[in-house]
Amino acid sequence: MQQRLEKEWDLSIDPDTVRLFILKAKALSAAVNEDYDDGAEHEVEFDGDAHASHHHDGLVEEASEDLTEEEFRELINDLNIDEAAELIALAWVGRGDYDASEWADAVAAARERPRKRAAKYLLGLPMLADWLEEGLEAIGA
Known about the structure:
Layout lengths: L1 H4 L9 H22 L21 H8 L1 H11 L3 H15 L7 H9 L6 H6 L4 H12 L2
Helix pairs in contact: 2-4, 2-8, 5-6, 5-8
C-alpha cells in the first residue's frame, strides 16, 4: 500500500483549500435549493397584536445571499495559475472527464482555460462540490 503514496501528481493547491471550496460550493448550492425546494413563496405570520417591525428590503437580502458567491469568486481569483488549473482539473476528474491516471493531461487542459474566467466556469458547474470531493478522493489527496 505504500506504493499508493507515491503519486504521479503533486498538488500546488492545498487539499484543505480545496475542502474550503467544497464547503463554499455546498453553501451556494444549499442557498439555491432552499429557495426553490417547495416552489412556494413564504410569508411571515404575526400574532394578533404583533406589529410588523420587519422592513423587508429585497436588495439588501439579495446582496447578503450573494456574499458567499462573491467570497467564492475572490478565493478563486486569489489562486495562482497552477492552483486554479488544479482546482478545475480536480472537478474534471471528479466528474469523470479524466481518470486520476490522466492527472497531468487534465491540469494541462485546465491551464489552457483563461484564468480570469475560472470562477465563472467553476460556479457554473452544477455539482461542483461533489465533483471536487470525488476528484480529491480519486487522486488520494
